[in-house]
């Protein structure tokens, strides 16, 4: 097997780095308001949620989702805010700033992978199930305006049917394997629209069919935050649709699968580096789950990679919390250890590495938590710093209800993000549905808070 210089350096780092455990203390700063939105009784879930922060030189910017939480709205126009005083105060800015928020590459380019909304395919004809005969050809591409018989199906509570298709079988207009990408070339200011080609074996596209008959093809943009790896490549985490074809055997699974992709040509093409199936055997992992979906990874000082995985999916199980899992790779992401339970909860795990060498992890639901790696391998972590309590918060509402639903109880979207602030601190971003305005009225509010590392 041919080893490149990067491969040899990776192996050497794994073999020689110390993994001694440190004493680390985490402390929290004061809550800082980014934006106050609607009262929670107007609409508890959807608008004024899902903050997504970026660091742009001397300023911080963050987007805030203000539409319904629906696959048709992933790419909807968000509100954007900036801070020029390290997150102390925030002001609204034009949404065009989004394209400046890409990852800065070694060649000076900046690339941004925007969220994309699903495509309404209600006008496409569905092939009747009675056409499914023993000799039905699952390798044939469908004609324009037609959806073939699905490779598999699953269902969500509320009556949504989810049909899964090998992307190669969809009509040409729907079969492209690409991500939208905006590039600001080095020493320029105007973004250029591109479509990065994605090498995704057995890419599975899903169509959500509502009770009303509306059909939406879910987008495939990467939900993770792109990062530069020690090899100079762009790395990003992704997950499949609601149900997918296992690339090992081509068989349908009703679960999500987690993926990591890399680009060695500055974002023009991406190739899959890692794929994780959720084991539906009822033993190692709970069977009643959506699978491995939202995830994040980080490159550790000893040369390994840690990868944290969400398993909760309410629409599949009726349960808003389930364990978060962790896996590690010591060979540059080619192979991974069997995922093990890291904590009993874990929505949207997010990691960041500070310049002092400490890696931080945030996750949530119910509650919001931050932990720090205690060693260079990421195999030991501090006890959770509680940013938001996991206990019942429904009494904080403007109009407390006697019998709270889960999100009344929780009072947050629990989709946190974290980014480095300086050498020894980071900013965590999260929502609080019960944060008071100057008149004491509780509003859905996006907050940030400084997390300081003491060694």
TrEMBL record:
The keyword rRNA-binding does not apply. Keywords: Signal. The keyword Signal applies. Residues 1-20 form the signal peptide. CDD domains: Sialidase_non-viral. This is BNR/Asp-box repeat protein. It comes from Gimesia alba.
């Amino acid at each position: 097997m041919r080893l490149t210089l990067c491969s040899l350096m990776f192996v050497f780092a794994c073999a020689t780095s110390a993994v001694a455990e440190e004493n680390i203390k985490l402390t929290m700063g004061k809550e800082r308001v980014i934006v106050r939105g609607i009262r929670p009784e107007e609409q508890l879930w959807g608008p004024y949620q899902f903050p997504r922060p970026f660091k742009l030189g001397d300023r911080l910017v963050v987007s805030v989702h203000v539409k319904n939480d629906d696959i048709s709205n992933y790419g909807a126009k968000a509100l954007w805010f900036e801070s020029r005083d390290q997150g102390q105060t925030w002001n609204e800015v034009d949404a065009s700033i989004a394209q400046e928020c890409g990852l800065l590459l070694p060649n000076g380019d900046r690339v941004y992978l925007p969220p994309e909304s699903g495509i309404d395919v209600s006008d496409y004809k569905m092939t009747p199930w009675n056409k499914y005969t023993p000799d039905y050809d699952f390798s044939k591409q469908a004609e324009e305006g037609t959806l073939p018989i699905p490779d598999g199906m699953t269902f969500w509570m509320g009556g949504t049917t989810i049909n899964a298709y090998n992307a190669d079988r969809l009509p040409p207009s729907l079969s492209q394997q690409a991500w939208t990408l905006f590039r600001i070339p080095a020493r320029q200011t105007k973004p250029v629209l591109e479509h990065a080609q994605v090498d995704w074996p057995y890419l599975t596209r899903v169509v959500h069919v509502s009770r009303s008959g509306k059909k939406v093809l879910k987008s495939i943009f990467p939900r993770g935050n792109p990062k530069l790896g020690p090899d100079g490549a762009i790395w990003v985490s992704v997950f499949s649709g609601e149900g997918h074809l296992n690339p090992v055997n081509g068989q349908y699974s009703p679960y999500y699968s987690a993926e990591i992709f890399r680009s060695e040509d500055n974002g023009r093409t991406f190739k899959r580096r890692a794929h994780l199936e959720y084991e539906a055997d009822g033993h190692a992992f709970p069977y009643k789950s959506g699978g491995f979906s939202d995830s994040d990874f980080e490159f550790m000082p000893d040369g390994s990679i840690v990868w944290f995985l969400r398993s909760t999916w309410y629409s599949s199980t009726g349960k808003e919390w389930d364990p978060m899992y962790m896996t590690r790779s010591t060979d540059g992401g080619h192979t991974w250890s069997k995922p093990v339970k890291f904590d009993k909860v874990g929505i949207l795990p997010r990691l960041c590495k500070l310049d002092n060498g400490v890696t931080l992890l945030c996750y949530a639901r119910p509650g919001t938590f931050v932990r720090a790696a205690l060693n260079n391998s990421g195999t030991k972590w501090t006890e959770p710093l509680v940013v938001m309590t996991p206990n019942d918060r429904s009494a904080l509402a403007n109009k407390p209800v006697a019998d709270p639903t889960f999100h009344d109880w929780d009072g947050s979207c629990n989709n946190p993000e974290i980014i480095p602030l300086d050498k020894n601190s980071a900013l965590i971003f999260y929502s609080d549905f019960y944060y008071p305005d100057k008149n004491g009225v509780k509003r859905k509010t996006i907050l940030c808070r400084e997390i300081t590392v003491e060694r």
